[in-house]
Amino acid sequence: MEEIRNTGTAAPSEIQVLTIIGQIEGHQLLAEDCKTTKYEHVYPLLAAVEESPDVKGLLILINTVGGDIEAGLGIAELIAGMEKPTASLVLGGGHSIGVPLAVAAKYSLVAPSAAMTIHPARMNGVVVGAPQTYEYFAGVQERIVRFVTQHSRVDRDTFESYMLRTGQMANDVGSILTGEEAVACGLMDAVGTLSDALAWLRGRRREPEALPPLRM
After folding, report:
1. Is 119 a catalytic residue?
2. Dist. CA 113–CA 179, nearest whole Å
3. What is the reported pLDDT for 173?
């Protein structure tokens, strides 16, 4: 129980569980009243899971509002680079940088009641309106788009259209997808639950029911 309280991971078993919740914390510490996922905890855990002969698969439970882009992409790259079976399950929300984290697994599921927010790269605080600033943001955004499209079935044009959509989010740019919409566009593999994710990890994959094509 102590390990779960400190790092959000379950006790060692055939299927290791990693929880990615709250905000993804980067190099700056967030307030003590914020629920966070700390990359310095997750990095060594993922390496240990990959090296352990006793662990047969990794289940990633995601309920995050997003957070630090580089920390999130770092975790996503480690998950994507694992040889062991990995399954992600979005519960509640897989927003912002939570999207690359969700698609990084070999099999990605989203709960029927969950949602995923796709939007352009952002930065808090004062931003200097200079060409170099826009180039930096464009570079960060390209890293996210490239990762998501390489690790899911969504094509670049569709993903960028969701990212830059106007009108759906008040005073902002982006899209909020339901679980079925995320599957229909190819972002996620299936709408499912905990038992579906565990069944896939144990080699008893359940084929999801076909969803109708998503209309833009």
Report:
1. yes
2. 7
3. 78
**Beta-bridge partner residues of 173:** 166
pLDDT higher at 13 or 126: 13
What percent helix, strand, coil does the chain show, rounded to 5?
Answer: 35, 25, 40
Cα–Cα distance between 4 and 195 in angstroms, integer? 21
Q: What is the pLDDT of residue 31?
A: 75
For residues 101 and 37, the answer to whether their CB atoms sit within 8 Å is: no
Assess whether 96 carries a catalytic annotation. yes
| 127 Cβ neighbours under 8 A, 6+ residues apart | 133
Q: From the candidates 88, 95, 96, 151, give the one annotated as an active-site residue.
A: 96
C-alpha–C-alpha distance, residues 33 and 55, integer Å: 33
Active-site hit among 88, 119, 151, 152 = 119
Question: Average pLDDT in the 86-97 region?
Answer: 96
Write down the pLDDT at residue 186: 97
pLDDT at 45 over 90: yes
Given a contact cutoff of 8 angstroms between Cβ atoms, the answer to whether 196 and 51 are in contact is no
CA quadruple 48, 45, 154, 138: dihedral positive or negative? negative
Specify the residue for token string 């129980």.
1
pLDDT on residue 130: 57
